[in-house]
């Protein structure tokens, strides 16, 4: 059964966003309609990993996993990993490479 308010909300949304829903113009210009692209990306990045039967995710854990999957999908992992290694080195060795040492004796 459809909620009675659903058609009213849908009409209100379309009326408020009429300037942004010119799908005919987007298709004529050769632009993709986002629903298929977005649904495919959501399935690939999110559902294929997070919807595994029996899995449980915390919000921070799921967010970390999804960021990593997006980085890998965009072929940005080598650049990300180099950045990560450099940041970790700076964190672990904050004074390394600074020539301002003073002798204690």
Model description:
The chain has one domain (5-92). It is built from five helices and no strands. The termini are far apart. The longest helix has 17 residues, at 34-50. It is elongated. It is mainly alpha-helical and 105 residues long.
Structurally, the number of domains stands at: 1
The tally of beta strands, per DSSP, is: 0
Shape: elongated
Radius of gyration: 24 Å
Total DSSP helices: 5
Mean model confidence by pLDDT: 82
Look at the helices and sheets and give the structural class: mainly alpha
Secondary-structure map with pairings?
Elements: H1 5-16, H2 23-28, H3 34-50, H4 59-73, H5 77-92
Key structural traits:
single chain, 105 residues, mainly alpha, 0% strand, elongated
Task: Please provide a brief summary of the model.
By secondary structure, the chain is mostly helical.
């Amino acid at each position: 059964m459809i909620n009675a308010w659903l058609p009213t909300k849908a009409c209100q949304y379309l009326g408020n966003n009429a300037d942004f829903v010119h799908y005919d113009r987007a298709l004529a210009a050769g632009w993709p309609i986002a629903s298929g692209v977005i649904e495919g990306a959501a399935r690939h990045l999110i559902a294929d990993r997070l919807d595994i039967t029996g899995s449980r995710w915390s919000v921070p854990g799921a967010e970390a996993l999804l960021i990593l999957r997006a980085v890998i999908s965009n072929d940005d992992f080598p650049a990300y990993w180099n950045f990560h290694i450099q940041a970790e080195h700076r964190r672990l060795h904050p004074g390394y490479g600074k020539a301002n040492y003073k002798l204690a004796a």
